[in-house]
Design goal:
This protein is of the alpha/beta class and 310 residues long. It contains eleven helices and six strands. The protein has a six-stranded mixed beta sheet with strand order 2-1-3-6-5-4, with helices on one face. α1 runs parallel beside α3, α2 packs antiparallel against α3 and α5 packs antiparallel against α6. The longest helix has 33 residues. It is globular.
Length: 310
């Protein structure tokens, strides 16, 4: 367990969520077995203390790096209930290939209700794990107003448990007879057909054609650009520009009027971006839409490229 926790933290900080789910689940099982607080605490310590000690040097290293060398874990965006619903509901839609017709909120409600109902009907260790991970963890994240919840990867634990739950429910249905088997076969057909449709978009768009965007920006020599994603976008632009042996310099927001960047890169749904934008009211600076790069599902980001109007 300690090795798994350490390797998980080395991969991504979302391991915190998995540890929280396992700790709550362990506490619940221990309480059901003994109904003694002392025993629950002892079980938690025996299982998770080695993992905590294994991660402690990593945490100290990150802290020292932040304090002494300016290391940054990443950008931080404030909590938004709309972003929470969009990402968790979108995660559910993408996992099962469901259409976006009903919005994201109804999918969250439907998934939580079905998981809660099944936990009441088929009681057991796995049922409590599913309820904690699929219902409890997202509610805890929302109640704590955690930042960066517009990134679907922060719901990957709940999504993984949701897939395990769905597989178990479909398996129960296929093992049954009559209406239950027909419903399971219908659900399986919907998931398979929806997933095929979703994967076709992956083959079409991939993670986004960032190289093509950078190529268009820099093909006439070194250039300047501004962006609304000043943490992620420069990293990607610098990477592809270096591979092409070219150069593109990011202009900060407070320097747009003086340096007048030649290009503007906006993140987000390309279908919702305007044809013409004026990124600042401090001066007369206008851009027209020149190109766009779409992405699939939760992989990557869509970019819209604008050229400065002289």
């Amino acid at each position: 367990m300690a090795a798994a926790i350490l390797f998980g933290f080395l991969c991504h900080l979302t391991m915190i969520g998995m540890v929280a789910v396992l700790a709550i689940w362990t506490a619940w099982l221990a309480w059901q077995r003994t109904a003694k607080v002392g025993r629950v605490v002892a079980d938690l310590a025996s299982i998770f203390l080695p993992g905590l000690l294994a991660v402690l040097p990593l945490a100290v290293g990150v802290f020292v790096g932040c304090r002494l060398f300016g290391f940054s874990v990443g950008g931080v965006s404030p909590f938004s209930i709309a972003a929470f619903a969009q990402c968790y509901g979108g995660m559910i839609r993408s996992l099962f290939g469901l259409p976006p017709w009903f919005g994201d909120g109804p999918y969250i409600v439907a998934a939580c209700c079905l998981v809660g109902l099944s936990a009441g009907v088929w009681r057991g260790r796995r049922a409590s794990l599913h309820a904690i991970g699929i219902i409890g963890l997202p509610l805890l994240m929302a109640a704590a107003h955690l930042p960066n919840l517009e990134f679907p990867r922060y719901f990957i634990i709940s999504g993984t448990l949701l897939l395990l739950w769905a597989g178990e429910m479909i398996g129960r249905g296929l093992d049954a007879r009559g209406t239950a088997r027909l419903l399971a076969m219908g659900a399986l057909a919907i998931v398979v057909s929806g997933s095929i449709s979703s994967l076709l978009q992956l083959y079409q768009y991939g993670r986004g054609s960032y190289a093509a965007i950078v190529d268009e920006m820099t093909r006439n020599g070194a250039t300047t650009y501004a962006s609304d994603g000043n943490f992620r976008t420069p990293i990607v632009v610098d990477y592809f520009a270096a591979r092409m042996d070219r150069r593109a310099l990011l202009v900060p927001d407070d320097g747009m009027c003086t340096e007048r960047p030649a290009w503007l890169v906006l993140e987000g749904d390309v279908d919702k971006q305007a044809e013409h934008v004026q990124p600042t009211a401090a001066c007369a600076l206008a851009y027209e839409r020149a190109d766009a790069s779409r992405h699939w599902g939760f992989s990557g980001l869509s970019w819209t490229l604008y050229r400065r109007q002289d």
